[in-house]
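pasting YMGG-like Gly-zipper for the record, 68 residues
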Amino acid sequence: MFRAILALSTTLALAACNTGAIDTDAERGLAGAAIGAGTSAVLDGSVAGGAVAGAAAGVFCDDVGACR
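structre below
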């Protein structure tokens, strides 16, 4: 049940990218880092690794056309 709630909250957080609320690479990087760290913590992974991966995904998502 907890993982279902996590999946839903992550989906909603990522959906915020398309609302214009997160506009810059820095904002997307911070949001990605927070989501990555939180997800890694829940899944008993490396929180630092999750934050780094999430930040990279957030910063570069518009460059590959995933966010815009």
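The radius of gyration is 12 Å.
Helices lie at 2-15, 25-42, 47-60.
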